[in-house]
Amino acid sequence: MRTVYTKIEQIVGNVVTVAASDVSYRELAQITSAPGTAQQRSSLAQVIRLEAGRVFLQVFAGARGISTDAEVRFLGKPMEVSFSDALLGRVFTGSGVPRDNGPVLTQNMVPIAGPSVNPSERIIPRRMVRTGIPMIDVFNTLVESQKLPIFSVAGEPYNQLLSRIALQAEVDVIVLGGMGLKYDDYLFFKETLEQKGALARSVMFVHTAADPVVECLMVPDMALAVAEQFALQKKRVLVLLTDMTNYADALKEIAITMEQIPSNRGYPGDLYSQLAARYEKAVDFQSAGSITILAVTTMPGDDVTHPVPDNTGYITEGQYYLRNGRIEPFGSLSRLKQFVNGKTREDHRTIMNVMIQLYSSCKEAREKRSMGFKTSAWDQKLLDYGDQFEREMMDLTVNVPLEQALDKGWQILASCFEPAEAGVPSRLAEKFWPKK
User: Fold this and answer.
1) Domains of the chain with CATH codes
2) pTM for the full predicted model
3) DSSP 174-194
4) Which partner for 246 in 180, 182, 269, 373 could form a disulfide, CB atoms 3.0-4.6 Å apart?
5) Tell me: the pLDDT tens digits for 360-404?
């Protein structure tokens, strides 16, 4: 029998402090307020800090109604999540409670927030994840086991982008983790996946802005623990997280509650480690499946030096910039694309390089025009090309397979330039350049 503690030393916000021993970090506890009375209330809590015989517990449902004489019973285990194929099509809260009025799942419980995979079990990424979005598939290919953030600002359609990727990505399982979502955003994800038939291969862990802050912290761990189990069943798993800035803000809120010494802009000093522990779950197993992570990171004030995107950039393998409703080609980067885009089609890399170089020249021509300088015939070709490129390739409503996107790239080039003007190798021009 484990000791039951009957005196809470301190209650600050949703964090309670009790003097206890033989307790481990992240262990669960049951807090029973007013034991033995008609108003008895039990709450689940998690150990978030150990300090000189004192244990700090974050109460999932909030500390309102908990008195200092409440009973605290430690459960001797960390937070766990049920795993089975019955998860598919289900929606849960950040603490694993069904949000869809479905049955509670209790079989095959697995712990969350475990260590990342041993590097010896990993293999070099070798397969692309097709999304049907040309700005990803053609120009910054998403690769299995990659970890990539989507840098954006409030108001951009990043949740709509994630839902499209969830519908179209050529993977076996989608695990969606929502943190601090508005309720209509949560309904948007659920209804979109349900109406398009993708919910059957998806699992959702959703924390809304009205839910306890501790559940926000558990969403990535829940999602990644489930993803890891599916990957061990030789499934290709895509984990979509939104919004990691809300996750970091939840870390900051709890750190302030516990009076930790703040670091840059009030965020805790271990922000990098907390983010890295989640992103490093991305893996391609040597003898099993894979986990790929796409995570939205909103930048307050569109400031890429903000601590959350700044730390994220050191961890991940590139980034997508979502601005003005489009994935920008400048700044967006997939550092692993070279592992796969040479194996797709022989013209892939040429189309990628040539179209971006010409679009860069188009930007210069637009600046020249905006400053009142006279534009040449070449400038006009670049301007026409830029308008067509944005309309037929960059627009997020464009939805075509990779091969069709490459063909469309050749058509755009041919409508504006001659092969020599575009700088296309003659060998590829003879094979792919559209015949007039």
Assistant:
1) 4-78 (2.40.10.170), 81-335 (3.40.50.12240), 348-432 (no CATH)
2) 0.92
3) EEEEEEEE-HHHHHHHHHHHH
4) 180
5) 999 999 999 999 888 899 999 999 999 999 999 999 889 999 999
